[in-house]
Task: inverse folding
């Protein structure tokens, strides 16, 4: 059974600080996704990582993928309050169907 | 484009009742999905479809049924609602060939009492 684990589950951080969210998965996969969800809202796609060593950056967020270690990271640089949300990673378990298994999410709170 | 739309936004059901959650997309996507999200948890795939007339089970299909007669619509049917089906339901769609991006609807919050 494929498992996707994120840590930490909850992260409270001060504005201006850096931190990393980790996503581990238990079987081989060639696609990994990061999504953002604001409270009571739907999911917004952040990144799609397609190969080993892939790195993508958007603003203060940078995601990377190590398929050999079955690990993806989401790095936050100089956090701001607007980044407060829940972040999910998801793994494609069957190629060509986008059939995703989601992690449990990391709830991020950024305070002044 | 409206994207992915879902109705209703919120519904209260009594145990044993049935209902259909509607999902429509106007992006001509061939893949569509239904997920449920329990409080404080990630999403779990219920059913998915790779095209009209083709559906398959996801992680948690028990208690649900789907059909896909058109590219645009992918309704989810709950038969004999149970309290364990209290959740938020998200529909999503994607286009095979446009790698990876699933577009999510706003969700339907369902409470079974």
Result:
């Amino acid at each position: 059974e494929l498992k996707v684990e994120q840590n930490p589950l909850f992260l409270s951080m001060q504005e201006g600080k850096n931190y990393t969210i980790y996503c581990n998965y238990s079987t081989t996969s060639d696609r990994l996704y990061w999504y953002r969800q604001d409270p009571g809202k739907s999911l917004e796609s952040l990144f799609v990582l397609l190969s080993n060593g892939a790195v993508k950056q958007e603003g203060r967020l940078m995601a990377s993928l190590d398929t050999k270690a079955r690990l993806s990271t989401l790095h936050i640089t100089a956090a701001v309050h607007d980044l407060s949300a829940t972040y999910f990673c998801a793994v494609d378990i069957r190629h060509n169907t986008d059939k995703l298994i989601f992690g449990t999410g990391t709830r991020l709170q950024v305070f002044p | 484009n409206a994207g992915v739309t879902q109705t209703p936004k919120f519904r209260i059901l009594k145990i044993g009742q049935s209902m259909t959650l509607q999902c429509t997309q106007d992006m001509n996507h061939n893949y569509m999905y239904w997920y449920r999200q329990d409080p404080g948890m990630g999403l779990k795939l219920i059913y998915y479809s790779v095209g009209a007339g083709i559906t398959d089970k996801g992680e948690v299909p028990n208690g649900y049924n789907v059909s896909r007669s058109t590219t645009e619509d992918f309704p989810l049917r709950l038969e004999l609602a149970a309290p364990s089906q209290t959740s938020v339901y998200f529909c999503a769609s994607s286009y095979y060939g446009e790698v990876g991006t699933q577009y999510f609807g706003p969700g339907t919050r369902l409470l079974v009492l």
About this structure: Chain A touches chain B at residues 4, 31, 33, 41-45, 48, 50, 88, 90, 92, 96-105 (CB under 8 Å).
